[in-house]
Amino acid sequence: MSGLDFEISQRPDFAIVSVQLQPGQSVFSEPAAMASMTPSLKMKAGLKGGLKKALGRMFAGESMIVNTFTAESQPGEVVFAPGIPGDLMHYRLDNNSIFLQRGAFLAHSEGLEMSAKWGGAKGFFSGHGLVLLKAQGTGDLFFNSFGAILEIDVTDDYVVDTGYIVAFEDTLDYKVVVLPGSRPAKTIKNFLFGGEGLVCKFSGQGKVWIQTRYIHPLLSWVYPFRPVQSKN
Asked: What are phi and psi of 183, to 5 degrees?
């Protein structure tokens, strides 16, 4: 299966991807990801893969609805833009799998299936929910981040703060552990009130993608400046 013809631009702060579709080609995306398109394309919204897979995507932090863009008799272009400021990455799957954290999925080509992957209790303690989004098959995948994306080649062990993980290959094993060097009392305090002190330890060989920003510290910084209704 031939890959999509695409171009990623405006990196790394406000990345977008332009996809050129030939007659008969389709691309699938999150709702509201389409920034622009040529009128020759046809868009259809629906529950791709049935209700079970749609529910799985919902539990993984994505939308149940998937938009399908198809070039029927004429070629066309569709431009996708992530909902948050940051970078986006292309990954070509070849009969393998990749895991995404919630909110990272943007679009994919034909030949891929998106499903929910139970992360167990370690997913809960990572602060990102119990379910990961799993992409598998052969095709093109686009995922986005908050901030720029760093691609890390793991060959043995590697530690990443749980809030900075965007995606990782299925060849890697992982477990959530206490941040090395943390004092027990401080670790409990950070976990309960600050969400820090827990990291994801990857092992094996494969790629992991991390983002250069984490949304929770930004929200904590903005919170004191929020409008507050005065009490008369």
From this structure: -75, 140
